[in-house]
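Hi P.,

Sorry for the delay on this. The queue was packed all week, but I finally got your sequence through. Input first:
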Amino acid sequence: MNKQVQQNHTDAQFPHMNPVHNPVEDEIDLRELFSVIWQGKWLIIAITAIFAIGSVIFALMQPNTYKSEALLAPASEEQGGGLSALAGQFGGLASMAGINLGGGGGVDKTQMAIEVMKSRQFASQFIQSHNILPELMAADKWDMATDALVYDSELYNPQTKTWLREVKAPFKPEPSMQEAFKEFTKVIAVNSAKDTGMVTISVEHLSPSVAQQWVTWLVEDINKVMKERDVTEAHRSSEFLETQIAKTNVADIRTILYQLIEEQTKTIMFAEVRDEYVFKTIDPALVPEEKAGPKRALICVLGTMLGGMLAVMIVLIRHFVRKED
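Then the structure:
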């Protein structure tokens, strides 16, 4: 009895040490949430409808885009047989001349070509050599009747070929190659299939004919660039080997050097007689007839869902703010 009286006395003095826990208060009342949502149904419907209408208008305002693509196969290296045969014997000597004999430690030529296409240097050369900066940066829409691009009048004047952009320093009215490269990477894709090794180059643009033309140019240019690289390297290696021949009188070493020069000559001859040096075209690019984008139905669905979720959040937040006041 005395213990009970002491306990009651302690509880009366320190009520905070014996809190009453009500698990019902910690649980979310789903019925209350549904009731709040039901009471705010008209606000939810209104906001969702606004977002739905806005997404429809936005989707309809987006111009059609067309994708053209080409399927390529890595070109077989017929000249590689002789080089590979020499790799085991003369690899050390060849490496002094900067010659890759295909002994297995080098970079795959196909993968190198893909990375070159993705590089800033290649993109800049491609844009400048084909003069496609207006089509890349200032195109507004495509006129199907005339198969001509319509340019944004606030960016570019096609009659005078002058740029009219209003930009702040350090930018200029004419886009720089850094700006162009960012846009270039958005419309061009290069993918390699791991199982087959096939390479797909695709371009998505407002004009289907422009998309097809760019894919064709890309295939031609990457073959040309890789060919020029190998030919330049072969000439430089041959000059080095000829210099070494003049410096030695040992017959065996001279024989080895002559064999290396012969292989570099084969590389040059092989490159000169074949246009499709790195990639062979399996399925060339065509002018697409069907649009690739935008996905208007998807835009409308996502816009409506976003509006609905935002409306429910607004109703719930408003309810709990009022409840705490």
